[in-house]
Amino acid sequence: MVTYHEVKIGNTIIGGSLGSNTGLVVGSIFYDKHSVVKDPFTGEFDETRAAVLVDRVNKLSKRYGVQMAFDVIAASSEAMQRYLEFVSAHTSLPLLINATEAEARVAGLEAAAKLGILDRCIYASLSVDTEDNELEALGRHRPAAVMILASDVCDPTPEGSCEMIETYYLPMLREIGVTTPIVDVGTMDAPSIGLNIRQIQAIRERFGYPAGCAFSNCFPQWTSLRQLGKEWVNLSLGASLVAIRAAGGDYLHYGIIEKAAISAHVAATAEMFYGYAAQELDGYKLPGGHALWKMFKLTEEQE
């Protein structure tokens, strides 16, 4: 019987049997062309507006009883350092260190070490393009979690993802001393979410690792849906989140941080169902701040 592993990231715990912990609901800040960013390379940004966005997520996480995190995206090492310093000072929630360039990700690890926040950071992520200096940096500065992108374009089946973990990632993870990664199975387009569901199930059953995806990646290509309007996009976004979570997904990336409110509400609704079943059928003791209790006190939280 498989053991479903848990990963502790600051005050957050993800993984385990479905419903024993809530999924991690993640949104991006300082993303490409984010309106709060003034200069993506120096990292200059509107601190007042950014603080409002961060505070909103803090309040949503508490109000709804779901675990949330910030995907901190930077275009340069300088920007990454500034962003991490700012966001970490305004929240105690987990932070993803994310950048297209390896140099910026490594700078994020070094900045997190200096700030003393490695224990609530996720390195996002190891991939087929991972460079040796990244592994060396991870050996020096160990974050709370390391994410791996198990998306094999040559074999996008559940078996392909599992084989990629087995042959490519496990040796790499052993090298840096990581026993339980967070697996991102990669979302290409809307139909591929169906593959993601099967991949997540297969990975959890074979390895017991927390897994999930950035299902929001499918929406930019879904032009016919966008033409219907924002309300319909949000409905499909919510349906995607619930479908991934029902498959056991622990990593639930909803896209831009401006979508935090609808994502928190949808996630909490689902977690209420899964949490109750885990409590009544599996014997798990849910914390007092769990979505199961929060969803019946939403009007009180607004007062």
UniProtKB/TrEMBL annotation:
What stretches pass through the bilayer? none
The record's section on Pfam families has:
MtrH
At the top level, the lineage of the source is: Bacteria
**UniProt KW Lipid metabolism keyword:** no
What are the UniProt keywords, alphabetically? Methyltransferase, Transferase
Q: Does the keyword NADP apply?
A: no
Among InterPro entries, the record links this protein to: Dihydropteroate_synth-like_sf, MeTrfase_MtrH/MtxH
GO MF assignments: methyltransferase activity
Q: Which GO terms describe its biological process?
A: methylation; one-carbon metabolic process
Q: Per its UniProt record, what NCBIfam families does this chain match? A: PRK00979.1-1
Family classification? Belongs to the MtrH family.
Protein name in UniProt: Tetrahydromethanopterin S-methyltransferase subunit H
Its organism's taxonomic lineage begins at: Bacteria, Bacillati, Bacillota, Clostridia, Eubacteriales
